[in-house]
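For concreteness, we quote verbatim a single protein encoded this way:
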Amino acid sequence: MDAAPRAFAELPRDRELGAPVPFACGTDDGYGGAGTPSARALDKRRVTQCALSRICGVCGAGLGRPIAFLGSSIEVGRNAFHFPPSHVDCAQALVAAYAGVDQPVLGQDESAPRVLVTTASFEFVRANREDLDRRPTFHPSALLNETSAR
């Protein structure tokens, strides 16, 4: 895998979208290797690494508190996010970078994430065989703040 952490300005760019590709979207051949970096989908291995090692889904550096989750209004309503926790500054920068993108990216089913919530802690839940959506989710504990980019 590629070296992490990386400053936001040093993240590789998605050639098609022109936007930065966060750590959680990386794969050996699509992020740090010979392939083309893409922000379309999440790398399950990196999502798990972010959860278990408490590292930022955007830059790959260790997390402190508070932490931020970015996602859709549906994810906020369910209190279950697919994109890993991030530094508040990294999450704000990522939301701003994807403001003009109106298609599913960063593991979302709908357009680019528009809502950012902050919290102090989370629970990582892996899907089981009975779940229709097999992606792992992050369930923030008590929300500290919520902002919308729309």
